[in-house]
Design a protein that fits this description.
The chain is of the alpha/beta class. The protein is built from nine helices and 14 strands. The strands form three sheets. Strands 5-4-3-2-1-14 form a six-stranded mixed sheet. Strands 6-7-8-9-12-13 form a six-stranded mixed sheet, covered by helices on one side. A two-stranded antiparallel sheet has the order 10-11. The relative contact order is 0.16. The site of 3-methyl-2-ureido-butyric acid (CDV) has 10 residues, from loops.
Length: about 325
């Protein structure tokens, strides 16, 4: 029996600093209703989809920082999204800033959850690759303080849901081949990725005109090389003066883009995703059992940075 998942991108335009959770959730529920009206099973929202992208600002006061975090999920302001999911029998994937107390210790993560058609959280993912910097760097046009405000997650898991094997990643994770391969090794058939990507890269402005090209090339390569669907979802547009790329798209296991958003505002785009399309890649060119050579891949996990050159040098990081 064919295994189809009708998936909607739930792209968001900018969220203003003063916009309330309640107002944002109303935008999310509007997108969910549109997706449901077109027969979707699942809608995927961006990274940190409940607030403005706050790591662009240096804040010294932890109480102020914590206003951007969720202590419970669902909480009073997000419950309507869960209620609607249950009413419509729709799943969703949502990114948010998570404040978790574990063994009496407070942790803060950049998190995504997968919610099933019954409104139950069936998977949680905490962002592994946190980009940016940990200290205030006033020379930048805007900050990127993810390394200050979050601690990194430690695993890429997959979950049996929606009739297939589903994984999640968040924004910068999509640029790293390890992200997809670790999930590919667990048989992933669909990777859900929300992102907030400024057009301008303060450390490498020479990349700015390539930002949408890089967005697509990494997700298309990840899809093809692991025989999986990839759903990439932006928070796009000019948010608090910072321009963010759009480029939300659905990528088939062939690496081809089969649906894409056309604007940088709130918008859905849809595809009927046949999970069995993954098989012809997983069984042939990327049959891992037959063709992978892990003996040759040791440095991937044994070392973090580049090996020193014969003269003791290596490429210096830009600061
Ligand atoms: N939110 C992100 O992780 N953004 C990064 C930017 C800072 C490079 C990204 O990889 O898109």
């Amino acid at each position: 029996m064919a295994r189809f998942v009708n998936v909607a991108i739930g792209q968001l335009g900018p969220i203003a600093r003063e916009e309330t959770r309640t107002a944002v959730v109303a935008r999310l529920t509007s997108l969910m209703r549109q997706a449901h009206a077109t027969g979707c099973d699942l809608i995927v929202y961006p990274e940190l989809a409940l607030t403005t992208f706050f790591p662009r600002w240096y804040m010294a006061d932890q109480r102020e920082i914590d206003t951007y975090f969720e202590r419970e999920m669902p909480g009073p302001e997000t419950r309507p999204l869960f209620d609607l999911a249950r009413e419509l029998s729709m799943g969703f994937c949502l990114g948010y800033a998570e404040l978790a107390v574990e063994d009496g210790i407070v942790h803060r993560y950049n998190t995504s959850i997968l919610v099933d058609k019954a409104g139950a959280i069936v998977a949680k993912y905490r962002k592994v690759h946190l980009p940016g910097h940990a200290e205030h760097e006033p020379w930048r046009k805007f900050q990127h303080l993810e390394k200050r405000y979050f601690e990194p997650g430690v695993r890429f898991g997959v979950t049996d849901a929606f009739g297939g094997v589903i994984g999640m990643a968040i924004c910068n994770d999509r640029r790293w081949p390890e992200t997809y391969r670790v999930m590919g090794l667990q048989g992933v058939e669909m990777v859900l990725i929300g992102y907030n990507t400024p057009v301008h890269n303060p450390l490498a402005p020479e990349h700015d005109h390539l930002s949408t090209f890089h967005n697509r090339i990494v997700m298309q390569a990840g899809a093809y090389q692991n025989g999986t669907w990839v759903i990439g979802v932006a928070k796009a547009g000019i948010e608090e003066g910072v321009d963010h790329i759009g480029g939300s798209c659905i990528i088939a296991p062939s690496g081809e883009i089969v649906a894409a958003c056309a604007t940088k505002g709130d918008e859905i785009a849809l595809a009927r995703c046949d999970l069995d399309l993954c098989n012809s890649y997983k069984q042939t060119i990327f049959n891992f059992d037959l063709h992978r050579q892990p003996r040759a891949y040791g440095p991937i996990v044994e070392q973090k940075g580049q090996t020193l050159m014969a003269d003791g040098s290596k490429v210096a990081p830009r600061r």
